[in-house]
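A common beginner's mistake is to predict each chain separately and then try to dock the pieces by hand. The better habit, illustrated here, is to supply every component at once so that their relative placement is modeled jointly.
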Amino acid sequence: MSKAVKVKKGLDIKLVGQAEQKVSPAGNSEIYALQPDDFFGVVPKLTVKEGAEVEAGSPLFFDKQREDVLFVSPVSGEVVEIMRGAKRKILAVKVLADKEIKYKSFPTWSKSSQDRDGLVKLLQESGLWPFVKQRPYGVIANPEDTPRDIYVSTYDSSPLAPDTAFSVGEEKAHFQTGMDALNLLSGGEVHMGVKKGETFFDDIEGVVKHTVSGPHPAGNVGVLIHHTNPINKGEIVWTVNPLDVVMIGRCLTSGKFDAKRTIALTGSETKAPQYYTTRIGALTKSVTDGKLKEGNVRIISGNVLTGAKTEPEGFLGFYSTQMTVIPEGDQKKFMITEGWLSPGLDKFSLSKAYPSWLFPKKRYKLDTNLNGEQRAFVVTGELEQVFPFDIYPMQLIKAIMINDIDSMEKLGIYEVDAEDFALCEFVCTSKINIQDVVRQGLADMKKEFAA
Amino acid sequence: MKAVDNLLGKVRPAFEKGGKLEKYWPMYDALETFAFVPDHTTKTGAHVRDAIDMKRTMFLVILAMVPALLFGVYNLGYQHFAAMGVDATFLEMALFGFGKLIPLIIVSYGVGLGIEFIFCIKKGHAIYEGFLVSGMLIPLIMPVDVPLWMVGVATAFSVIFVKEVFGGTGMNILNVALTARAFIFFAYPTEMSGNKVWISTTGDRTPVDGYTGETLLGQAVEKGAAFTDVTGQAYASAADSFMASFIGLIPGSIGETSALAILIGAAMLIFTGVASWRIILWGILGGAVMGFIFNLIGPAYFPENLYLQVPWWQQLVMGGFLFGVVFMATDPVSAAQTTRGKVIYGFLIGLLGILIRVVNPAYPEGIMMAILFMNVMAPTVDHYVVQGNINKRLKRFKTVKAA
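With all components supplied together, the output reads:
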């Protein structure tokens, strides 16, 4: 039952720095790293010590609560540093890469094998399992579950998002293999969201295709689920990012953990935004060196709404498919010339509070300034304009703030992930960090039902 | 701007932790953030944020009030000199009006912001912008010659008991400005109702013959739609009296008389997205419906109450109805917060506003009571709207379980 999902509510933040459709190899990265913070809800337990030699595909750590879920090294080499933060929290496990990557070999898998348990085990051992996420809670899936359905959204509608079809490129066969594997895992269907008008995925078989149109967050997988078959209490749905499907397909075909990925370098502070091939966990500077404009910039692994702040010495995130570089906004703005009393033709807003609505086509160079101070909720009705769910966002957020588990459940927290609230956070007049709140709520819910 | 920055930088250390005036940090913070959007950057979550903030929002509301305010100033002078039978120039009228309004604004802001500052210093949190709007609304809904000390007391009562005790801006259960008016209305009724308070007749001149000082609302109680102007002259036609109240050359609270000026403000609020168009539109509809019902049943069933026969379109431009619906009912904190809730909330405010005005002779202006009542009811309205959403989800859950 394929469906046409038409989203009306939402907002496209038009930024400067869309990537040109051109791929080049990224610079050489000496060090690669896995960062446990990429994995929401995971408590890492190391399996290696500093100085250990690993192959690409050897585990670096596992999840303390679920010991079968392994997180493996993207390259072979020596574990040079285990970076820790406050309370000895593990921030990154760094591997000094060999010149020639040695791969740990795993059994291969093809569509002809219908052994579901075997596939689950193989995905866990070969480090591919963390690519499979679940709702509710937005965490890595539990290998013991059988999901109602699996959802893949190939439409990334976020600001400056890479074109998935272009990133997949010549690896469509791997994408198909990945989808075949998901088909075996799913208790129901594999649903695939495709941007309306996109024909690249037309020949993908064995999936239920839905066309999606509308402003961001139309491409979010949560929106796709909500508009096709919303999650009820007790149901579990798995989600996988399209480039991770490619990764799964590639690794199952070759029998090795090959962490290659095409990412887009975007944003107003890049000289020539375009696509690069690199690997998961590569040094940020291997992608950005020599490609950024002068000045104080913020490098984001991911998009401007949900990505993680990183440094030139930081690393590409596990799930990231783009890097965005925008100016830092750490300067005061005088009220009359640049602040709240200014004409503000260059200020982007959902509301028409600044006259920039005169230029609907204009692309903006936004910086990281908060554009105000945090306040209690005052304005109502703005979150609803960018939240295409049949859920009351403000009421849900307030329920989370007071840790009212019962209300959170009733108001639909099972259907959402923090990323679905990213635009709410963007438009919030009171500058409340809504994604943090939602993440807290998901963690609270998970804890409540952990037993 | 550099000079302002330098000056702020110079006094800043005294207010910082360990400084002499550490306790007064919120005051410094308020000043600094007023002059400069601070250099705060996003730490977690979305890296870019919408350009709108609370200051811009509140500034736009104040901007939207300016037409009503300016017209109010002019009308104060116009009414005064008309009542005295004196020919005055535009400048004289405007100067007279400003002379009356500015002390009210000073008292309202002085008392309100003073209390706000004290509470924020006590609680050690930043000063929010909410009172900037309330402080401007209060003078606009006062009769011209209300004693300043009463405005001060009413403002203090309102800020403390409906806002600060509940946690400050964003937490108030009622509209702050309207509560200040209600306070005077009940505590000092002679200053807030009757025929003597709406036009300034102080000074050594005496009013012309035929002057009563009645507002249209007062007249409607006794004479229905047969309105007279300030000198006691009957309007030539219903269209004339409608135009007088639409333009606003009638007695009333300072900012409420001109429907035209208020509608200009409403257009600004709706267009910029600051106020809910649903509340405004449905509020006006609610008033129209109630007025229309009265027009239908009035002559047949209640011939002795002439108020019922005031045409519904006339009801909408009389008194504080529009001002209340546009500037008071739309206060997002005390209004309903859900989309559907706003429709119900707005409609009932309009409906009840006209109902109270017409049926209860003790309250010639009903919109104040209607809004305060619906402020109290708003959470209940929202509760049922949200409950509908919850029930839908539960039903879906049950269907899935049964299948």
